């Protein structure tokens, strides 16, 4: 029919010049009497995301790469830690790029973290956190949701200490991707490298391309500051 407007394959309404009411979808057409026009022109199919303009007609280019993603999961997990001086997270990934274990440093299950010390130094070592706290690597391995972690890669914020190196080796993890090696010259880290080298566990420092990854809970909802976000559906 000559008076019908045709829906194009990209979801836009194609205008045939007819002047009747054609308010079928709010953002696509202006009403009768005015010159009808498509609102969703390619130029307007953009919106602001994290302060940047993006082209909604093209695949995103700033998505997280695998290493960034898994290291970010380790860092997010670290935010659960109650340790006032050191928050460390670990994320174990299998050969299919699936996460099979996450952990962060904290006191053992059932041991109230209000009744145990969090200090780094004290006259008596029993008044420091060290004899009690479980490292992120230990928790990630024990939290595994698969039968084992053989052949997996562990992403961890800090290079593992010697005790965690033992756990990594014995659990069959074959690779470590770490962020910081700030305790490199301590005996614990020296022993750790010695063990990992002997066992043939590969370890690589992660060098991030970006310094920050922001999680914005408001990003999923349209806001006043992002009016065009209400136009586009996912
Ligand atoms: Zn450790």
UniProtKB/TrEMBL annotation:
It catalyses: dCMP + H2O + H(+) = dUMP + NH4(+); 5-hydroxymethyl-dCMP + H2O + H(+) = 5-hydroxymethyl-dUMP + NH4(+). SUPFAM superfamilies: Cytidine deaminase-like (SSF53927). Residues 1-27 have a biased composition (Basic and acidic residues). One of its GO terms (cellular component) is cytoplasm. Its cofactor is Zn(2+). Residues 1-37 are annotated as: Disordered. Its EC number is 3.5.4.12. One of its GO terms (biological process) is nucleotide biosynthetic process. It is an enzyme of class 3 (hydrolase). Keywords: Hydrolase, Metal-binding, Nucleotide biosynthesis, Zinc. Pfam families: dCMP_cyt_deam_1. One of its GO terms (molecular function) is zinc ion binding. The keyword Zinc applies. Residues 65-197 form the CMP/dCMP-type deaminase domain. It comes from the Eukaryota. Belongs to the cytidine and deoxycytidylate deaminase family. PANTHER family: DEOXYCYTIDYLATE DEAMINASE, DEOXYCYTIDYLATE DEAMINASE-RELATED. Catalyzes the deamination of dCMP to dUMP, providing the nucleoside monophosphate substrate for the thymidylate synthase/TYMS. Also, part of a nucleotide salvage pathway that eliminates epigenetically modified 5-hydroxymethyl-dCMP (hmdCMP) in a two-step process entailing deamination to cytotoxic 5-hydroxymethyl-dUMP (hmdUMP), followed by its hydrolysis into 5-hydroxymethyluracil (hmU) and 2-deoxy-D-ribose 5-phosphate (deoxyribosephosphate). Catalyzes the first step in that pathway, the deamination of 5-hydroxymethyl-dCMP (hmdCMP). This is Deoxycytidylate deaminase. It comes from Branchiostoma lanceolatum (Common lancelet).
């Amino acid at each position: 029919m000559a008076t019908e407007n045709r829906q194009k394959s990209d979801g836009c309404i194609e205008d045939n010049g007819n002047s009747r009411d054609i308010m079928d979808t709010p953002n696509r057409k202006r009403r009768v009497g005015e010159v009808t026009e498509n609102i969703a022109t390619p130029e307007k199919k953009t919106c602001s995301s994290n302060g940047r303009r993006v082209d909604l007609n093209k695949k995103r280019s700033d998505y997280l790469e695998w290493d960034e993603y898994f290291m970010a999961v380790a860092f997010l997990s670290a935010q659960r830690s109650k340790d006032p001086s050191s928050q460390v997270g670990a994320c174990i990934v299998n050969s299919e790029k699936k996460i099979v274990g996450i952990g962060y440093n904290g006191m053992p299950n059932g041991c109230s973290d209000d009744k145990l010390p969090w200090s780094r130094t004290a006259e008596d070592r029993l008044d420091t956190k060290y004899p009690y706290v479980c490292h992120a690597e230990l928790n990630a391995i024990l939290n595994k949701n698969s039968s084992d972690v053989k052949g997996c890669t562990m992403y961890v914020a800090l290079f593992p200490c010697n005790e965690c190196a033992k756990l990594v080796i014995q659990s069959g993890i074959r690779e470590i991707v770490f962020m910081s090696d700030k305790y490199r010259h301590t005996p614990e880290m020296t022993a750790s490298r010695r063990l990992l080298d002997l066992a043939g566990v590969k370890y690589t420092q992660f060098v991030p391309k970006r310094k920050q990854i922001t999680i914005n809970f408001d990003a999923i909802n349209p806001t006043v500051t992002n009016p065009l976000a209400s136009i586009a559906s996912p």
